[in-house]
Design goal:
Yippee_fam; Yippee/Mis18/Cereblon; six-stranded antiparallel β-sheet; binds zinc ion; three-stranded antiparallel β-sheet; Metal Binding Protein, Guanine Nucleotide Exchange Factor, Chain A; zinc
């Protein structure tokens, strides 16, 4: 994949990877705290940086069937959550293109 350079975010509150503190998202792009990930509570974000997307995969969740791609930290390769590629239920369409980050895998970097 070649060399990845990391982007740095600016703002009041920045969430980073708990493994290596790479910047991932700001509080301004957070949509909801009321999500559940693989390891407990998770947050939904409009935008996340410095992640690599895996292969799309169909998964059935409590809110119905979705196509998602796992997302990995560009630096330490930790699986941080996933991106919603497609939602089959009309009521879940708002999640398409948005990102889930697991709360336990985030640290405040600022
Ligand atoms: Zn990391």
């Amino acid at each position: 994949m070649g060399m990845c350079y990391r982007r740095y975010l600016a703002g009041e509150r920045i969430y980073g990877c708990s493994g290596c503190k790479t910047h991932l998202a700001t509080i301004h792009s957070m949509i909801s705290r009321a999500f559940t990930g693989q390891h407990g509570r998770a947050y939904l974000f409009e935008n996340v940086v410095n992640v690599v997307e895996g292969e799309p995969d169909d998964r059935t969740m409590t809110t119905g069937a979705h196509t998602v791609s796992d997302i990995y930290c560009v630096k330490c390769n930790t699986t941080l959550g996933w991106k919603y590629i497609h939602a089959y239920e009309q009521s879940q369409k708002y999640k398409e293109g948005k990102f889930i980050l697991e709360r336990n895998l985030l640290v405040d970097v600022q």
